[in-house]
Amino acid sequence: MTKTAVFRAVDITKTYQMGEVQVRALRGVSLELFEGEFVVLLGASGSGKSTLLNILGGLDVPTSGTVHYLDNELTASDQGMLTRYRRDHVGFVFQFYNLIPSLTARENVELITEIADSPMDSLDALDLVDLRERADHFPAQLSGGEQQRVAIARAIAKNPDVLLCDEPTGALDVKTGIVVLEAIALINRKLGTTTAVITHNAEIAKMADRVISLSNGQIAGVEKNTTKIQANVLSW
Amino acid sequence: MKKLDRKLLRDLYQLRGQATAIFTVIATGVATFVMSMCAYQSLTTSKDKFYRDYRFADVFSSTQRTPNAMLPRLREITGVATVETRLVYDVLLDVPEMTEPATARLISVPDAGQTVLNHLYIKRGRMLQPDRSGEVVVSDVFAKAHHFLPGDEVRAILNGKSQSFKIVGIALSPEYVIQVQPGAMLPDDKRFGIFWVSERDLEAAFDMTGAFNSVTVRLAYGNNVDAVIEDLDRLLTPFGSIGAYDRSEHLSHQYLSDELSQLRGMAIIAPAIFLGVAAFLLNIAVSRIIVQQREQIAALKAFGYTNLEVGVHYLNLVLLITVTATIAGTLFGFWMGNGMMGMYEEFYKFPSLELQINFFAVAVGFLLTFSAALLGTYVSVRGAVRLPPAEAMRPEPPPSFRLSIIERMLPKHALAPEMRMVVRNLSRRPIKAFLSVIGIAMAVAIMILGNFSLDAMNYMMDFQFRMAQRQDLTVTFVEPATESVMYEVQTLAGVLQSETMRAVATRIRFQNRSRRVGIMGIEPEAELFRLLDAKERVVRVPDFGIMLNTKLAKLLGVRVGDEVIVEVLEDKRPILTLEVSAIVEEYTGVNAYMNKQRLHAALLESKVASGAFLKVDPNSMDQVFTELEQRPGVGSVTIKDAMMQSFENTVAENILVMRSIIVIFAAIIAIGVVYNTARISLSERSRDLATMRVVGFSTREVSTVLLGEIFIFTVLAIPIGFMIGYGLAGIMIAGLDTENYRVPLVINRETYMMAAGIVVLATIFSAGLVQRQVQHLDLIGVLKTRD
Ligand SMILES: Nc1ncnc2c1ncn2[C@@H]1O[C@H](COP(=O)(O)OP(=O)(O)O)[C@@H](O)[C@H]1O
Ligand SMILES: [Mg+2]
Question: Per the CB < 8 Å rule, is A59 touching B390?
Answer without folding.
Answer: yes
